[in-house]
Every structure is written in C-alpha cells, then in structure tokens.
Amino acid sequence: MGGLVQGAALGAAFELLCTSVLEASQNVVRFSSDLARLESTLCSIELAIDDVENFNKILDAPKHETETLTERLLEGEKLIRKCSKVKWNVFKRLYYSKKLRKLEALLLNYFQINVAAFHFRESKRMSVALNNVNEKLTELATIVNNRGENGVGSSNVFPKLEDGESADEISPP
C-alpha cells in the first residue's frame, strides 16, 4: 500500500474514491444516507481537486503538500469496499457508518483549514514576489533614465509624466 500511496496522483485517488462511492451507493442500501452525503461532499470538492492537480503540474509543486489528502482518499476507497461487504450485522453497519461520517468530516476539514492556509501562504508569497519585481523595475527605470539624462543612449525610455498627463497620451520614443 505504501508504494501505491507514494505513486498515486491526487486526481487518480479522487477518481477512485468517487467511482467507489457511486458504485456502492447504487448497490449498498445499508449506507445510503452516509454515501449520499459523502457523494455530495465529493462533488463539491471535485473542481478544487482538479485545480490543485493542474496547478501543481504547472508550478512543479512538491508532492508532499497533497500526500495527506491523497492518502485520505485512498483510505476512503478502502473503507467503501469494506462497507460493501457488510450484510446485516447491525454493529458493523453502525461502525462503518461512523467511519464514513468521519471520512466526510476529514475531507471537509482539509478543505476548510488546509486549503485556506495554503491560499493565505501563497497569496503572501505572490505579494513578496510582486514587490521584488516592482523594486527591480524601479531600479531598471532609474538606470535607463539616468543614462538618457547623462547623454548616454538615444532617449529617455521612461519619460516622467507632467501634472495632469496620463500614460495613454504619451507616444513611444
């Protein structure tokens, strides 16, 4: 199982759990309300899962950020398979019903807390990166403008705006 968890992509694990829930909800009447609630939760987070996986590919993000969620999804799929095997044992039905509710709560908790924290961290990281870019552009503009004022270079690439003048009114040199 360790190798499967390590190598499984988030989207593949999510798809596996969704498929299991859909099949079980059609075939296992004993957990219908729990499975319906879990199916609704999965439908709610499906787009977020797709986005996380796509952004991780684009940004070449480390896999450890989503490993916990991938593990939970694979554990959920195993739980659904176990639920499918429960016949009329009332104690097992109660036990697995509680486990299904716990799985749903874990998924909701992950998206309410972990994703919010991740979003906050990433927005702060982007703000820092934008500030760095702004500083570099300001430095570059100063260097280029100083060269133009000292007679080095052909013209002032970044002309200063006069009062009341907008950047749209300036034609390129």
TrEMBL record:
Short name of one Pfam family: RPW8
Annotated spans, Disordered: 154-173
Ranges of Acidic residues composition bias in the record: 164-173
InterPro entries linked: Powdery_mildew-R_dom
Limits of the RPW8 domain: 1-149
Superkingdom of this protein's organism: Eukaryota
Protein name as annotated: RPW8 domain-containing protein
Organism: Handroanthus impetiginosus
